[in-house]
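[job 0412] stage=fold_complex status=start
inputs:
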Amino acid sequence: MSNAIPETSLLTLADTCLLWGHRLSEWCGHGPALEEDIALTNTALDVIGQARALLQLVAHRRTPPTTEDALAYFRDPHEFRNLSLAELANGDYAQTILRSFLLAAWFVPVWEALEKGADRQVAAIATNASKEARMQLRHAHDWVVRFGDGTPESRRRIEAAVASLWPRCGELLDVEIDGTARTARRDAWLSIVTTTFTKATMTMPPMGAASTPNSSHPDRVTLLTEMQSLARQHPNAVW
Amino acid sequence: MYTQALDVPDIAAQQAAPHAHGASPAEANFLARIARDEKIEPQDEMPEDYRKSLIRQISQHAHSEVVGMLPEGNWITRAPSLKRKEILLAKVQDEGGHGLYLYSAAETLGASRDDLVDALHSGKAKYSSIFNYPTDSWADIGTIGWLVDGAAIMNQVPLCRCSYGPYARAMIRVCKEESFHQRQGFDIVRALCEGTAAQKQMAQESVNRWWWPTLMMFGPHDSDSEHTGQASAWGIKRISNDDLRQRFVDVTVPQAAFLGLTLPDALLKWNADRGHYDFGPIDWNEFWRVVKGDGPCNAERLNDRVQAFDDGGWVREAAAAHADKRARRAVSAASVRIAA
Ligand SMILES: [Fe+2]
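[job 0412] stage=fold_complex status=done
writing structure:
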């Protein structure tokens, strides 16, 4: 399978989806309004579904083959390859929404490139995922605009979210994903983000050099400790 | 998920039925429509007590759906496989959806969702007591689906034929989803029972904890029920609490046997004369304690709801403020066009 996208890239995508979906799932039952609770859970379900499809593919391609659950529950934190943006604790609703916006704006061009790619198994996943990512992007975009152009408090909160998440965006632009062109991806992301920030009457901070994420990934460790706790208590169990 | 039998006393809403003596022509006409099994629709004339009683029941039901997201939501982040995580997340989301359609059904009667939610948050409105029990283990997610959703379906299927159209239609949709949830819950318990000794023990302990609270979901005995007479005359309640409870026991005992689980009741046994299972006495002290606010998780559940609502205040305000700005901009753009 010479057209196969290397596992490292697939795991970056899968782990980003999985940890982001997990963070979103923490909101379930606690959203700011029932409609939003449901909408946020839609995104969580979409991205967890994407993670599963990719992890199943990775598991299947390994020799010997493994399972999606072995990859999700029995890898240690340092083996996860997600973008660090995905693992961060939720913060308030502005930060949750902004993270979704920044990630969806990244995923839309990624899926669109992979959809046309030579790895047809990945392309099949990307075809579905790109539709879902566009919907996620629209939902998150709408809220970023509402927060930027809403009340003084929402403005203060979305600006604080930008300040705290912006340093993570360098990684997002620099990461290599086989089957996608980095420059095109970067231009697409910048153009989406600029448009939304303009509508939200906000200025986009300058794109600094990528800051190196804390290599001990404390939020990733906390997340995985919780997520993997039950599965690891019963390592031989089938659920 | 679920409606608790509506006969739980609610002091504020308790009023004697006025039509018992000397019904007005409008009331007589209304009761005749009910007797003909016609659906009452929002624009139709209806007695004030019927309207109030429905708002109370439907909103209690809506609150139960929303509070019911919490105990199961507790395990979303720890679900032991990705498939189970996805199913559970979708299930809890469905409960939120049930809450939405039920609030909408209550709004057709002239209630406002804000007022109803306020009543929940101030502790004035009730929700199903079953959600005041903790979910201590993963097996509880299975047991809730199997037993609690099973009991909810038993209670709700007759409501699909209730006299108020919007409520009956909401219940049809809810019941379809609940039976799906029940099968998923049963499947979780089945996997545990077919699993390791530790998994099986987890399932048994969970059933031990949930069995009696589930039987309490059907509400007080018929002889102690305060609203049943009125509710059945109005075509809201079709089958009595005790009859529903008996049906539930009768279908559940063989399911437990199939799973190899023991139900925690030494008096549970088949009675060939009655053609039903006999079962032991329910601890009504516990029932009333939990209904009145003193269950294991009452404070925590309400607190979680209030906090989510309060934390979301600025989000809802921002959405309203932004919509307002857009509307004003549209108006001024339109007047510019007219002026030009
Ligand atoms: Fe429900």
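[job 0412] summary: Residues B 1, 65, 95, 98, 174, 178 surround fe (ii) ion (CB under 6 Å).
[job 0412] exit 0
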